[in-house]
Amino acid sequence: MSIRSVLIVGGGFTGLTAAIALAERDVAVTLVDKAPAWARVGHGLTIQGNALRVFREIGVIDRVLAVGQPESSVTLALADGTTLGVMPTPATGGDDLPPTIGALRPDLHEILVDRAEELGVEIRLGLELTDYVNNGETATSILSDGRREEWDVIIIAEGIKSQTRPKLGITEDRAPSGLGIWRAVTTRTPDMRGSIAFPVADDGGAFKVGYTPVSADQCYVFVLCRPERTDNGLEGYQEVQRLMANFHGEFDYLRESLNADTFLNFQEIEWIFVDGPWHDGRVVALGEVVHAVPPLIAQGAAQCVEDALLFAQLVTEPGQLSDQLDAFYARRLPRLKGVVDASLQLAAWEQNPGTPHADPGRVMAEALGALVPAP
Ligand SMILES: Cc1cc2nc3c(=O)[nH]c(=O)nc-3n(C[C@H](O)[C@H](O)[C@H](O)COP(=O)(O)OP(=O)(O)OC[C@H]3O[C@@H](n4cnc5c(N)ncnc54)[C@H](O)[C@@H]3O)c2cc1C
Question: Which domains occur in the chain, in start order?
Answer without folding.
Answer: 5-72+100-174+271-356 (3.50.50.60)
